[in-house]
Amino acid sequence: MRKRFSIAITAGRAHCGGVGRHSRARRGSRYFIVSILCAACIVQFATNPARAQCTARDVLQNQLKLKTRPAEVSQQLIQSGRDVATWKTITIGTFADPLGLRNKLDGMGCGIGGQAAEILARPTFILGSRKTDVELVLVSPAQLGFTSDTVTLADVYARARQLGFELAAAEVGPQLRIQYLDQPIGEFLIIGMEPIKTWSGEPIVLNVANGGAGLILIGQDGRAASEIHVTSRFVFARSHQSAPGTGPIDQAAAFLPP
What we know:
39% of the residues lie in helices and 20% in strands. The chain is α+β, with helices and mostly antiparallel strands. Strand 8 (203-210) and strand 9 form a beta hairpin. The termini are far apart.
């Protein structure tokens, strides 16, 4: 009897030991699978360039890497659009629909203001049907010849067109936000575009900005009578047609405010 009891205990220990080994093996297998999944996630995040490129830290890293400096604000009077150098060339028409564009901005960590988000969701916000490079210029109302402290948006647009610039497509705003990752702090660029109305009927234009907390796309008053400070900076598209007028000097003189 004592021998049989001893054998039973030994067998029980062997069985328990086997169960323990199997349990430890299963736990180890689970830990291994979890580790593989975590490693895959880390690799995915590390190799995904669209993630978190708009945060303040990422912008600083881009500026240091590219050794960029804030664009100097020239107040020299523009006599002709041909005399203004291209500031940036960006690509539009790279998204099939506005949702894909919005997801790209979200994935990069770019902020989107309430009015801008509403504009991107409006049926009148139309994307280019094909991939196109657009040359952009950067000008201020002061460069366009205005001398008062403020000027209306309508007057800025009229003068820009007369000097040979074009209004940018609405897509330029978010595309510039995506492609301008080293924007200096404190820079707010008004997109010279046809205003798009919100659901409540308020006309809005887009503004590509870096207020210090990261890169953001916001909306602002797009009424024709809205007052714009003369030192504000606008983004217009370069026109490849000659501006009207007999000559750049006569043209600039004719467009100076009374």
